[in-house]
Every structure is written in C-alpha cells, then in structure tokens.
Amino acid sequence: MKVMRRIPVTALEPGLVLAKTIFGDRGEVLLAKGATLTQGSIRALRRRGFRAVYVRDGLADDIEPIDVVSEHVRAIAVKRMHDLFAMVQHAARTSAEKGKQDLLLPAKWEKLWERLYRDIENIIDDVMEAETLDGLVTLKSHDNYTFTHSIDVAIGAIGLGKVIGLDRWDLHQLALSSLLHDIGKIYVQQEILNKPGPLTVDEWEIIKKHPEWGYETIRKMPIEEIFPKHVALQHHERQDGSGYPRGLKGSNKIARSLWERFSPDRILLVTEIIQVADVYCALSSDRPHRPAYPPDQAVAQMREMAGPHLNRELVTLFLRLVPTFPVGITVRVREGKWRGYRGVVSKVSPLAPDRPVVRILVDPQGEFVSPFEIDLQKEKEIQIASVFDLTTPLPDEE
Ligand SMILES: [Fe+2]
Ligand SMILES: [Fe+2]
Prior knowledge:
398 residues; alpha+beta; Molybdopterin biosynthesis moea protein, domain 2; 5-stranded antiparallel β-sheet; 3-stranded antiparallel β-sheet; binds fe (ii) ion
C-alpha cells in the first residue's frame, strides 16, 4: 500500500523518493521525480528555501498529485519568464545609465515575446481541459518565487475566466497580465523580497512602489496589449477602496454598468479576476516569513477577504474550482466516526471539492493501521482538517 504525499522539508530523511520534480529558477530540473533524497540534496532544498516537497515513502505512492498544467509546459514557461524579467531588468539598467527615458530592449526581445505567446496558448489549452484547479500552486524556492508565482496566477485566472465565459482573446489578455503583474518587483532588492522577518516601515514603502514601477515599465515595452500595465498598477487595490496606490473601488459584482465600466476610480474586471488568483496562490505558497497556509485554511481566508478586499462574486466561483482538500495532502478526522485518525486525500470529485475520499493510515495514537478509505460524500457526519504531518503529535484536540 503506497501514498504520494506532501511533507515538510524538516521531516525529510535520506532514502525517501521524490514524487514531483523540483525546478530551479530557470525552469531547470533540480531534482527529478523518482530521485532518492540524500543528506546533501535535503540540505540543498533547505538552502534554496523550499519548505515542503512531495515524496513517495511506500505509504501512498499510487496517489498521484494532479497538475493542471503539464510539468513540461510549466517548465518552459518558467524559463521564459526568467529570460523576460532578466532582459527587462537589464534594459532598465542600461536606459538609466544612459539617462534615457525609454526602455532599451535588445533585438531578440521580439522573438522572446512571440515565444511567450505560444507558451500562453499551451497553458490555456491545458487549463481548458482541466476539470478543477487541483495542483494549481507549485512548490517554490526563494529565487524562483516571482516567476512560478506569476504562472500559478495565470493558471488560476484562466480557470476563473473560463468559468465566467470569457473568450480565447480575453483569456490570453488575462494570462499575459497575470505574468507581468509583479514585474515592478525587479526594482526591489532581493534582500527585501526574501526577508524572513517583518518589514520595516521603509522597506514596506519600497515594496508598495512595485505597482507603479510595473506600470511604468510595461508602458515602455513595445507591446500592443493595453491590459497588462493597468493590472500591474491596480492589483493591490481593494473593493472597499483601502488598497494602494490609488484607492480604487469595486462593487463586488461581475456585471458592471456602463458607467462603472468607464469610471476611472473602479477596478477593472480583468484585475479583479487576477487578484483572486493572486491572493489564493500567495496564501498557498511558502514564503520567507511564513509557511504556506494549508488549502482549507487558505479557502477560509479567501472567504474572509471576499467583500472588503476581493470581488465577492468572483471568490465564490473560484472556490468551486479549487479543492478545499487537494489530492496528496495530509488530513485528520476532526469530527464523526474515526475521529483522531489521520490519512491522505486520495480522490477529489469536481462536484464536491470539499468532500474528498481519504485514505486513513494512522490511528489517534499515531500508530500505522492497515489502510482503508472513507468517502466524505457518503459519510456526511465526518469533518476533516489539514494537518502538518501523519505522525507529528498534535496539540490538544479541540
Ligand atoms: Fe504585487
Ligand atoms: Fe502577486
């Protein structure tokens, strides 16, 4: 009996086998699926800032995590994003040195942009086929955060755009805007972006500049699309007007009146879609100052942010797409029969994303039992919650 599952890097031991490929900041394979972990590779994972990985440890190896977008398509896109950001950063520096206002991009820019177009088409194709957005958020290290994050956001935004019936052209705009939304961060020092502790007031002021810097940068890029620059500028605005930099507002609705559509103090729909995906992906990712929120807690946070911060109608639709308990995560039974037992999510139905099938592996005393599955769609009284690991002792059960 085997299970593939997500475990924290702190709990890794030499000899465990990786169940998902780990990519570096250029989309290169750091450790391939199937590789056996050694003391050295575990140290390297920690150093690069990974907090969790998927392993096969003989407990649940037949449970395959789901990828919305194939590993191949994603790896190519990460590499492209790396190249694109590097090229823009270089151009910005050269322009500044020469005292030029415009962005001095090299001739190979056009090829790169064309290729990015093709990558986006591949991503859209994959998302169109996916039933849910399980596996949306990938594992990240410090140095590839912005690229991988932007791709996660694009996938989430395309998924949500598909649900509200956007056409292919709109989806393409969404994807492009997602990929560029944080490009202003190229002007923020890595030490601030990767700071493990709380930011000082001054550091925070610098971070808060990235929407405007992003807008200015994209405005100078030789591209026809009009949305990316506005999304970069607006993506930290909030429905209630408490966001930055301009304090724009939203109506918490998807449909908008003609007036709203052209009002300069309203957040654009394309931005609101990307914000929902952005916040979800950020919550679900390990960050230097905190570990990832487990999926059920990320969902709970999203519900709270719907209204004041995020467009409520969009959040409702989005939460139907992302499973509360994705395949491969560790959970414990909180209520009902089997209370206190722990196991791994083995199956999720798109019709009931919060009622998965769970493979029970460990009893309340932390002893392994002979595995069996419970289907939460049938066992209605059972409630589960995500948990750090299968065997780490829990603080007092509520
Ligand atoms: Fe941002
Ligand atoms: Fe973001």
